[in-house]
Amino acid sequence: MDSQNISPSPTASSGSVFAHLVRAPEDPILGVTVAFNKDPSPVKLNLGVGAYRTEEGKPLVLNVVRKAQHQIVNDPSRNKEYLPIVGLADFNKLSAKLIFGADSPAIQENRITTVQCLSGTGSLRVGGEFLAKHYHQRIIYLPKPTWGNHTKVFTLAGLSVKTYRYYAPATRGLDFQGLLEDLGSAPSGSIVLLHACAHNPTGVDPTPEQWEQIRQLIRSKALLPFFDSAYQGFASGNLDADAHSVRSFVADGGELLAAQSYAKNMGLYGERVGALSIVSKSADVASLVESQLKLVIRPMYSNPPLHGASIVATILKDRDLYNEWTIELKGMADRIISMRQQLFDALRSRGTPGDWSHIIKSIGMFTFTGLNPEQVSFMTKEYHIYLTSDGRISMAGLSSKTVPHLADAIHAAVTRAS
Ligand code: PLA
């Protein structure tokens, strides 16, 4: 064809075919890092995203991760072939053992299907799409509040999102009565998203006795639990203790889903390593589930990445590396716990108005401070401290050196900006 005869399409002359786009807002959590990166101040502090920092304020690559990487890179028998759709077999088996316990009867009875996914988020998304396609009830109940991305992940997966009461601002604790009432009136079969431990953003977890009541209610109403386990080991420093809630639901023989992330507990944030497990009633059903999960995954991203899963599998299957990991993990959890005490003490010594005991009582990576959006923006503007507008701070981003600066900012925000 003669190129001179090609007339420009009408849109080409009036600008881009995308010119009508409205600018989307930044993500409420990851957008905090975007703003932080633009701030030239030397005293700036990012307490937005939940990412572990050392006392020096630096990201941490665990020593066991370095060792495992070294082994992998130096092993000439390793290649870069595609993984199967469901991911690395060893990784899947070891991940199930980690969350459900090595002696889990459900594992021995082959009732669990585990597929490697793209970290916690990808596991939730694959689980959500699987449920939207194959489960009879499309309603999923999320705690109020919850990790902001949950609503988007499950809505886009095709589920209909509702909430159940979880947090009581007045007591800064669990609204247990509200939770029982809301789940009690949920339509039978509804899916219930539960944070396995270290609830994000509140840092408030049910007690073992409360978990037991929640379990009985969920089972009596034939609700389907979907555990999000993004912080195993990070809450208490103990991997088994942090899996207690999930294991109690497996022990009753009922069905459930669980999404695991290795972002925090192995510090593999950017490697995107996670797993989705579905516990069924029989090995036959588990194998049907796997066959259908493959149909969800294949058109989404075909198969998952190899490197991060190899690191995890290397650590989980070697007794020495595993033990070393648990020590490093405990070190991270303990440092976070000590930051809680230091921040609490710093506010007390400044005489900051308010009861700040929730800082030491809350569990996991975050403290839900109770600061309002105006106070948060004051702290960002005047003190270059970045946090999400709901007043959540990542304790893992603090260090002994930065606690006084944060305490000054909170004190000023509470006394001047309210
Ligand atoms: N589930 C919960 C409860 C989370 O808090 C997070 C991460 C994820 C799942 C997903 O993690 P992954 O996909 O990286 O494995 N929440 C972070 C980061 C730490 C984020 O928002 O992406 C947070 O700051 O809340």
UniProtKB/TrEMBL annotation:
One GO term describing the cellular component: mitochondrion
Aminotransferase class I/classII large domain: residues covered: 44-410
InterPro entries in the cross-refs: Aminotransferase_I/II_large, Asp_trans, NHTrfase_class1_PyrdxlP-BS, PyrdxlP-dep_Trfase, PyrdxlP-dep_Trfase_major, PyrdxlP-dep_Trfase_small
EC number in record: 2.6.1.1
Record's keyword terms, sorted: Aminotransferase, Pyridoxal phosphate, Transferase
The protein's required cofactors: pyridoxal 5'-phosphate
GO BP, sorted A to Z: amino acid metabolic process
Molecular functions per Gene Ontology: L-aspartate:2-oxoglutarate aminotransferase activity; pyridoxal phosphate binding
Reaction(s) the record says it catalyses: L-aspartate + 2-oxoglutarate = oxaloacetate + L-glutamate
Pfam families: Aminotran_1_2 (PF00155)
Keyword flag Ribonucleoprotein: no
Keyword tRNA-binding: no
Protein family (similarity comment): Belongs to the class-I pyridoxal-phosphate-dependent aminotransferase family.
Oligomer status and interactors: Homodimer.
Role, per record: Important for the metabolism of amino acids and Krebs-cycle related organic acids. In plants, it is involved in nitrogen metabolism and in aspects of carbon and energy metabolism.
Miscellaneous comment: In eukaryotes there are cytoplasmic, mitochondrial and chloroplastic isozymes.
UniProt name for this protein: Aspartate aminotransferase
Species of the source: Lotus japonicus (Lotus corniculatus var. japonicus)
